[in-house]
Amino acid sequence: MYGGLSEFIGGIQAGYNFQAGHILFGVEGEFDGATFAHPALPTPTLGSVRQNWIGTVAGRVGLVADRWLVYAKFGGGWVNSNAILNFPGVSWSGSNTSSGWLAGAGLEYGFKSNWTVRLEYDYLGLANWTSSTVPSISLNRDLQMVKAGINYKFVSGLPDSAAPTRTASPAHTADHEDLAKQSQNPIADLVSLPFQSNTNFNAGPFNRAQEVLNIQPVVPLRINADWNMISRTIIPVISQPSPIFDSNTNGIGDITQSLFFSPAHPGALIWGAGPVFTIPSATDPILGTGRVLLGPTAVFLTTPGHWVIGVLLNNQWSVGGNPLRPPVNTFLAQPFVNYNLAGGWYLTSSPIITADWLAPSGQRWTVPIGGGFGRIFKIGDQPVSASIAGYYNVARPTGTPDWQLRTFFSLLFPEK
């Protein structure tokens, strides 16, 4: 196989752990659906291999320290693939399930008594698949996987009371405004699961609607008594208008991960800074850049009286990925202003300003203005935040949407 592509996989896992002191032993299985194909010959038009599903079983051993677990894992896996070869004198397709060995390592953190998040790297070495053609083609399907996950433990770990001290007002006071301020702070020590729907109108030559649903889990991780690290992931589910046909392409876009290092006990100015990177996980070329992006990110805010005022900034450059795709150099600034009212209601404005530094000077900037309103409330015992807002792009590249409707719904998990 000649090279490959980085794409999106997703699935479920289950396992069993046994802890003796600071040492953990476990076994786990995983099943993932795959959505990617990679070239089997120098050009995809001559041949490609498509992965359909991936299954693994592995044992793991790790070192536990407070809420952190560092571990290694070893085992085996199976991959089901389809292949197509089509070049002069050869037309062949086939399906095959192959097994191989698995090695990996990861980092896991218990953010609540029954919940953990993890980041893991796995290498799955598979036997070559030789086509029944003349001449035969050897297809190498080795996989490298970077996986982020969230797990529920049926036996709790540390009690919720062992959680780090909040950087904002304690949520247990049940005060709507305190919880609202935490939910409006991108680097608050508050676990949340936001769903942000961005409907962009009048996109492309056929003036179709582009829909981007961002799934944005935010998990604070305690480093020590003085510092927290806040993990913010953005998984976009996209319906993208075609630039050629009057139709849309649907799928997963490129996934962005931000890590903010923030003081656990800030003063009047709350801040965090760290790296941001984007992986080319799009399930269709039109849904992503095809490049690995990396850069710095930072957020600054203050919370005087009923206000939450701040800005989130980042810039990313392409540092890898498909060399046939164009390079990337993009800037993002998201100022946010929230005013909290009685009864959990709040007013909000949070436009997303972007710049493509590689575009012609008159086509670089997208600058929206607008705002909306929202409310903090409960569904049963579950605190949630919901809002709706509209934005008009006063500056935008030609052919891009002119206005946006944004709806927001977030599950909030304050400590008890």
TrEMBL record:
The keyword Signal applies. The keyword Membrane applies. One of its GO terms (cellular component) is cell outer membrane. It is found in: Cell outer membrane. It comes from the Bacteria. SUPFAM superfamilies: OMPA-like. Coiled coil: none annotated. Residues 10-154 form the Outer membrane protein beta-barrel domain. Transmembrane segments: none annotated. Keywords: Cell outer membrane, Membrane, Signal. Belongs to the Omp25/RopB family. This is Outer membrane protein beta-barrel domain-containing protein. It comes from Bradyrhizobium jicamae.
